[in-house]
Amino acid sequence: IMLVVFCLFFTANSQCPVQIIPRRAVVRYGDNVSAHCKTSVLHEGMGWEASEGRVPMTKNQNLITWRVPELTEWDIKPFCYINYKIGDKDQCQVELPVTVYKTPDSVFISTVNHRGPMMEGQQYELQCDVHNVAPVQNLTVKWYKGQTLLHQTNFTDTIETPENKTVTLLIRPDRADDGAQYWCEAELDLGADGPQPHPTNSSKPLSIAVYCYKKFSQKDSNITLECYSTGNPEPAMWWSFKNRNISTGRRHINIERATSTNAGVYTCSATNKFGRSDKTFIVEIKGLGCECENNI
Questions:
Q1: So what's the architecture of 102-210 in CATH?
Q2: Most confident of the ranges 35-44, 127-136, 204-213
Q3: How confident is the model at residue 192, as a pLDDT?
Q4: Domain 212-295 has CATH 2.60.40.10
Q5: Which of 75, 139, 236, 244 is least surrounded by Cβ atoms within 10 Å, i.e. has the fewest?
């Protein structure tokens, strides 16, 4: 009796005389899928069992195909079975692992609890929303600044149906980040049997404006704002305040005996034939505070 039990276990799990091609199926939701099951032994019948694409048992074929023209079941588990003779009739089965995937409907980047320009040296939170993607356990969300990879997040969820995922990134921009573009990317790594290259969906870039630290001054005090630029050819420079030019060709401006009318946003601009760059200063007439230099 012990020998019989051992043989049944061995034949059913280790030596089932069928071969499934491919060994694993990776299919996009709604696409067609197929797999072959073949044997080289005499048998009393073989077939496919599945919630979609079932193939009834046949005794006169050694190769049968499971086929679904439009797969819409997320957790399908098809298996091929065979009834063959080892002494008495015996049956074994081999399952075809199927991964059904769906790329995101959208990938969106935003700032959390903040709108408008950012202040140099302050911490801000960016958020990436990935909508309706599966399976999440194969998902990686990557953060970029320009073409530089900053961080990536993987997931351990085993849910097979589509989910929404949100990841965040903390940044502390400096003046060199003014105009930088942040973006996030959702990548599905479905293994060697999956599509190559890996399917990716990217957000639109989020361009940030970075203001330097505010410059505080006492009423009636003198203020100097300095702005430096480099380039070849040497950039032309000018300053603007309240949407009008107030100085041309100078790297600094002086505000004498400042009053509340001098408070606001000052912009230093530099341009040459290759482009233009702007830097912004905020002046508040409140009291003594930090100095602010700026480089373009």
A1: Sandwich (2.60)
A2: 127-136
A3: 92
A4: yes
A5: 244
Residue 3 CB partners (closer than 8 Å, separation 6+): none
Amino acid at 51: S
For position 215, what pLDDT does the model report?
A: 58
Amino acid at 239: W
The ranges assigned to domains in the chain are 2-100, 102-210, 212-295
Alpha carbon distances (Å) from 68 to 24, 44, 53: 15, 25, 5
pLDDT reported for residue 125: 96
What six digits make up the tokens of 146?
A: 């320009």
Average pLDDT over residues 5-18: 50
Give the span between the Cα atoms of 270 and 251, in whole angstroms.
10
Which residue did the predictor score with more confidence, 39 or 117? 39
DSSP line for 48-109: EE-SSS-EEEESS-SEEEEEESS---TT---EEEEEEEESEEEEEEEE--EEEEB--SEEEE
Q: For domain 2-100, give the fold.
A: Immunoglobulin-like (2.60.40)
Structural contact between residues 33 and 98, judged by C-beta atoms closer than 8 angstroms: yes
Residues in contact with 60: Cβ distance below 8 Å, sequence separation at least 6, in sequence order? none
In the predicted model, what is the mean pLDDT of residues 274-287? 78
By three-state DSSP, how is residue 273 classified?
Answer: coil
Give yes or no for residue 11 having a pLDDT over 90: no
Contact call for residues 120 and 162 (beta carbons, < 8 A): no
Question: pTM of the entire structure?
Answer: 0.69
Is the sign of the CA dihedral 183, 188, 191, 195 positive or negative? Answer: negative
